[in-house]
Amino acid sequence: MTDPIADYLTRIRNAILAKQRVVEIPASNIKRDITRILFDKGYILNYKFEDKGPQGNIKIALKYHPETRDPAIRKIERISKPGLRKYTGKDNLPRVLNGLGIAILSTSQGVMTDKEAHQKNIGGEVLCYFY
After folding, report:
1. Do 113 and 105 form a contact (C-beta atoms < 8 A)?
2. Rounded CA gap, 11 and 116, in Å?
3. Cβ 73 vs Cβ 12: under 8 Å
4. Theoretical Cys-Cys bridge with 126: which of 79, 101, 107, 111, CB 3.0 to 4.6 Å?
5. Under a CB-based contact definition with an 8 Å cutoff, are residues 30 and 13 in contact?
6. pLDDT tens per residue across span 47-71
7. What SS3 state is found at 35?
8. CA–CA distance, 19 with 34 (Å, rounded to integer)
9. Within the chain, how many helices (H) and strands (E) appear?
10. Where are the alpha helices (DSSP H) in 18-88?
11. Backbone angles phi and psi of 27, in degrees to 5
12. How far, in Å, CA of 66 to CA of 68, rounded?
C-alpha cells in the first residue's frame, strides 16, 4: 500500500456511505493521532485501539444524527499525497468552510488541527480536510 492515510480516509468514507456503525482499520501511529483528533472534535462517536497481531487495529464508531440519520462527517478530502506533498507555513494555514471544518496537519510537534497549529504558530504538511 503506497498511501495508508488515503486508505484510512477511504474506509471511513465508504462506511459512512454504507451507513455502517463501526469501521475497522489497520493501525499506525499517525492514524491513531488522526482518530484522537476526530473524537476530540466530535466527528466520531468513539474509538478503540486493539493490539491484535503485529500491527493492531482501530475500531471507530461513526456518529450519525439520531433523527435524520445524517452523518457527522459530510466530506473527507485528502490534500497532501505521496506524489505531491502540500506544505504550509504558519502564515498560510488553511481554513476549511470558513472555520466550520478542520484541516489536519502533520507538524514538527505532532499531528494537530489547523487551529492548534495557529495557536502554536507553526506550519506543516496538510494531510486532509474534514467537514
Report:
1. yes
2. 26
3. yes
4. 79
5. no
6. 999 998 889 999 999 999 999 999 9
7. helix
8. 21
9. 3, 8
10. 29-40
11. -90, 155
12. 6
